[in-house]
């Protein structure tokens, strides 16, 4: 029984593809829109290998409202959107901020306009913990709760906080306008703002994982490239932070836990009609960069080369989640460990050094068929 039909923007990307898989496994029908800027269509085949179902796919740009209109017109059963489509590199956002605003903010406005025309009323927005900025500027805000004031320190984070505000204003307006007119359906307009921390890991089957087409922007995929010899060493940006070893502290969450968080948030919107709600998706456990290097080196079985470089503009000391609200309201918490994430990432990288540009190992495919 199909429980509903969901559009996933950016659905061939890392977190989007895992969320599409989680939705299919939960009997949702899935339609993906992605421009393949930093992803591969091959992931659609890998999703099908794992769950026996393949999402519908449209190659289109988030900022193209007419293209989105066409998708909604061809799939009138879509009632919800999970929105990943965005540029996502903190460092790059400081170099080309206008492009980040054009894609992330402009694309989100085009999406909301198209959703409204086609009466698609639920949106789960894949936001980011970067919206909080430096939470150490306030007392008692580490680990970070949802009521921590928003204050991003880089253009990427500002695009995310801007889209959060736009979604909030839009959903509240839709609800208020219908209520004022005395028309039914106000409660159908809902949004989840998911502020998550550092996604990591791969599918334990070894068949899907993170497949950045350019330079990866996250610590673990960079380390994985060092481990397979694609990169000489990891650059550690700053060892003069006020942490136990001088490196920045981050909350790492396994991508399977994160994709499940998007699924349960969508279910919550559909069942409870809460209006606009923000939740942190994280483990509540902070790890320093040096601790991460050690954890991944232990899985690989040898020390991995790194070099300390100056801090990057906009980086903050500590991004660790307080996930209590998601634990209580969504009945969600992380189930997989940092060690699981390292082991799954290494299995994926070691056996798929060319990512989706190669066939998955036969023994992995055979194991899925059993």
Provide a descriptive summary of the structure in words:
The protein is an alpha/beta fold and 370 residues long. The protein has a single domain (4-369), classed as NAD(P)-binding Rossmann-like Domain (Rossmann fold, 3-Layer(aba) Sandwich). It has helices at 14-25, 42-51, 65-74, 90-95, 97-117, 155-180, 219-227, 255-272, 289-300, 324-329, 338-351, 362-369; strands at 4-9, 28-34, 56-59, 78-83, 122-126, 190-196, 198-200, 234-237, 249-254, 276-281, 286-288, 306-309, 318-319. The strands form three sheets. It has a seven-stranded parallel β-sheet with strand order 3-2-1-4-5-6-10, sandwiched between helices. Strands 7, 9, 11 and 13 form a four-stranded mixed β-sheet that branches. Helix 3 (65-74) runs parallel beside helix 5 (97-117). It is globular and about 65 Å long. The model has no long low-confidence stretch (mean pLDDT 96). Its EC number is 5.1.3.2. One of its GO terms (cellular component) is cytosol. It catalyses: UDP-alpha-D-glucose = UDP-alpha-D-galactose.
Topology:
Layout (H helix, E strand, L loop, with lengths): L3 E6 L4 H12 L2 E7 L7 H10 L4 E4 L5 H10 L3 E6 L6 H6 L1 H21 L4 E5 L28 H26 L9 E7 L1 E3 L18 H9 L6 E4 L11 E6 H18 L3 E6 L4 E3 H12 L5 E4 L8 E2 L4 H6 L8 H14 L10 H8 L1
Parallel strand pairs: 1-2, 1-4, 2-3, 4-5, 5-6, 6-10, 7-9, 8-12, 9-13
Antiparallel strand pairs: 9-11
Helix pairs in contact: 1-2, 1-8, 3-5, 5-6, 7-9, 7-11, 9-11
